[in-house]
Each structure stands twice: as C-alpha cells, then as structure tokens.
Amino acid sequence: MKVLNFGSLNVDYVYQMDHILLPGETQACSSRNIFCGGKGLNQSIALAKAGAPVFHAGLIGNGGEILREELQKNGVDISLLKTVSVPCGHTVIQVDKDGQNSILLYGGSNRAISEDYVDEVMSHFEKGDYLVLQNEINEMPYIIDQAYKKGMVIVLNPSPYDENLSGCDLSKVSLFLINEVEGFQISGEKEPDRILGVMRQRYPEANVVLTLGGDGSCYMEGEKIYRQGIFPVTAVDTTAAGDTFTGYFISSAIEGKDPAECLRIAARASSISVTRPGAAGSIPLREEVLS
Ligand code: RIB
Fold it and tell me: Does the beta carbon of 230 lie inside 6 Å of ligand 1?
C-alpha cells in the first residue's frame, strides 16, 4: 500500500505583526522569515514524519527549489515531482502576537497541473493505495475521478474551501478532514454535531474528522462519534497545525490504530507544532509525539 499526496508547494513569506492588518492600515512588522509550506507539502512531511510511505506529486515553479529539498530531507518520495517554468506558489502570512495567522495565497505553479501529468502520476498507483488531497491545486475533479476509477482510497482536506471544489464529485471521498470553518461552509451549521449530521446525510459512505480549534476534535465513523480535547500549550504560530493533525491522523489510521488513538496522536502532534514558528519546520517527529 502506497500513499500519494497530490498537493500544493508554497514558499511562505511570514511576517511577525502586533495584530493582523485591518483594511486600509499600514503596520511595520518586527520580522520576516521565509519557510517551506503549502498545505500539500506540509501534509506530506507530517505523513512522512509520522511514518507513512508517502509520494508527493505537484509542480514546483521558479524560485521553489528549497521545497524539493525540504521534502527529500524529511523522507518524502519526490520522484513524481515536476518543475515548471512559471512563478512558484507562495504565500504572505501575517502572524500576530498571539500566534494567530492570516494567509494570502498565490497559486502560481500549483495551478498549472495538466491532465497528462495527472495520468502520468496515477499510472504509479493501484487499488487500495491512498490519495490525499487539499484544495490548493487545479484539476481536482479529474484527479478524484481518476483515483476513484482505480479504486484508491480518497482522503480530502477541502482547505481552503472555495468554488473550485464545486466541480468535484465528493461522494467519491472516503475520509474528510475539515475544521469548524469549513464545516460551516459545507453544511451551513455551526454546532459540531449538526455539522457532522449534515456530512452524514450528504456523504453517507464517508468518515469525517472535524477539528474545533481550542475545543479539540472529533471523528465520525458510521453512527459512532469519538471526541478528543486539546493538549494546552502556549502558541507562537498556528500555521500548519491543521496539516500536522491531518498527516498524523491519516498515518495512524493507515497503521490500523483505533480511532480514539488516531485522534489523540494527531492532537498531540498539532499541539507541539503550534509551539514552533513556520509551517513544515514546525511539524514534530514521531518520537516526540509518542514520548
Ligand atoms: O496550512 C498552512 C499552509 O497554508 C501554509 O504553509 C501556506 O503555504 C498555506 O498553503
């Protein structure tokens, strides 16, 4: 069994601010750092650090070579990555004094994926392999359809949730990982059990992980709902906390751990990640999470 993460690769320009900018405001920042990121790259690194055999597919644009090195350094298989001659995907991230962030995303190379490239990538996978997706790349409907035809297990973190997902047949997804904002966007509901209720109605075949920030997380499998609280820490930067959770949850589930344990491990991993600055670099190693 192999894991394919078909996802974004971004260079994150991270600015430390007093507070997130208000409309029309100019504010000097106290520092700027350049980190490797992208929900796709972060989740691949979290999967690899958690112990899953993960291949990352996606496009690296001009100025993005550090992203390839970061994936390789962390044990992700990069043989399916491709380099293209367009600006690399990147972000401008403001982090405030409480560690909260706001992200401006430029898709760049992440949105230059072609059907031919998808076909080439998919030719390396078969029934029973996992496909992990977020929503920062183009050709999502085609990728989902091709993976489903092959009998792959499709896992979707629909983040950021936007109109690009409307062309996707989400009934083909086996596992959703959403936060409370995406839960509201999908279901129109704010209360966790109601969000899960709508997901159950709309996607009866799928299991759902719902993360709730400071209120922890829950996982719905069939009629059963598992719940997990947070591990309280002082946050310096919440960027990639969700990606860390996602990677650790999927990896634990693939290992056959029971759902309560999967949630607990994922919650521990993401609580460690928020105590560190940056995206990919903040993701803890398996030994740290389990110790
Ligand atoms: O989830 C965090 C990630 O979202 C950042 O690394 C940034 O690149 C954006 O894609």
Answer: no
- 147 alpha carbon – ligand 1 mean position (Å): 24
9 lines ligand 1 (CB under 6 A): no
**Which active-site residues does the annotation give?**
243
Residue 210 maps to a domain:
yes
Q: How far, in Å, CA of 234 to CA of 94, rounded?
A: 18
Over residues 232-267, the pLDDT tens digits come to 999 999 999 999 999 999 999 999 999 999 999 999
What's the CATH code of the domain at 64?
3.40.1190.20
Which residue range is the domain that position 250 belongs to? 3-8+39-87+113-290
Task: Give the residue among 198, 187, 202, 209 at the shortest CA–CA distance from 263.
Answer: 209
Amino acid at 57: A
Q: Which two tokens stand for residue 184?
A: 């509201």
Residue 137, in any domain of the structure: yes
User: Residue 199: what pLDDT?
Assistant: 97
Going by CA atoms, what residue is nearest to atom 2 of ligand 1?
240
pTM summary value: 0.96
What is the position in ligand 1's atom list of the atom closest to the CA of 243?
1
